[in-house]
Write a structure and sequence with these properties.
One of its GO terms (cellular component) is cytoplasm. About 5% of the residues are buried. By secondary structure, the protein is of the alpha+beta class. It has 5 helices and 9 strands; from the N terminus they run αββαβαααββββββ.
């Protein structure tokens, strides 16, 4: 179909521009998740699984409801996702059994108690901390145990929703969090967390984040030189860690 051809072209352009390979995808309603990996990481990818959980009325969000009911429903949906999603294997059956969990998307948390004039004044006068005191996500993190352990990067950008298409009038924001099951030697470092306010095609402004994860370096590293299209193209470089003794069995 036209859509599948366009998606295939998009994936090809992304792989070429960023020297990466498509790993997996998941789509539900307007949510579309794509996972890519750099070629050098391919030898270390194991047991990739995808799961999805419908929330609300058959997976559809209901936007018009009382504020307290709406917030409670979001927390219940989040909790049901954590409880219902199960993965195969003994190492990490549930979502929070994994070492690191990223939670991101259009989560609809808003700035509570301030009208648009206060929001505009705070953003224009560089007083963003005033807004985050009334941010619903920040308040929920203090009162709801279900989000305990999740952390968010520093908020150094203005709210990214809701905009009139083609304008720069905002109301709330999108979020990106990460969670650690236990305290590892090095916690994820947020290298970049920002909005892209120049986009005007939607009532949302995109939000992106770049994280750095420290993991144990394997004794043997395999480097994929190029994309494999046939078996004869399969070329891998092997590098042994410094101080690790080689043998004739290598």
């Amino acid at each position: 179909t036209y859509m599948s051809q366009r998606n295939h072209l998009l994936l090809g352009l992304w792989e070429k521009c960023y020297c990466s390979i498509f790993v997996a995808s998941r789509r539900m309603q307007g949510v579309f998740l794509l996972v890519f990996s750099k070629f050098c990481h391919l030898p270390f990818l194991r047991g990739v699984q995808t799961q999805s959980t419908r929330t609300g009325l058959g997976g559809y969000w209901v936007s018009q409801m009382r504020k307290d009911i709406w917030e409670r429903q979001r927390m219940e949906n989040f909790e049901s996702i954590l409880q219902q999603q199960q993965f195969e294997g003994s190492m990490a059956v549930g979502v929070l059994d994994h070492d690191v969990v990223f939670w991101f998307g259009d989560l609809n948390f808003r700035i509570e108690g301030y009208d648009i004039h206060v929001v505009k004044s705070a953003t224009e006068k560089d007083k963003l901390p005033l807004l985050w005191e009334k941010d619903q996500l920040n308040m929920v993190k203090k009162s709801e145990s279900v989000v305990e352990g999740f952390m968010e990067g520093p908020l150094n950008f203005p709210p990214t929703y809701k905009f009139d298409v083609g304008t720069h009038t905002y109301d709330t924001r999108s979020v990106m969090l990460f969670y650690m099951r236990r305290a590892p030697p090095y916690r994820p470092i947020t290298l970049h967390y920002s909005s892209h306010m120049g986009f005007t095609l939607s009532d949302h402004k995109p939000v992106s984040a770049l994280f750095c994860l420290h993991v144990n370096v394997p004794l043997v590293t395999l480097e994929v030189e190029k994309e494999w299209t046939k078996f004869s193209d399969a070329t891998v470089k092997l590098t042994v860690a410094h101080g690790f003794q080689r043998s004739s069995w290598d």
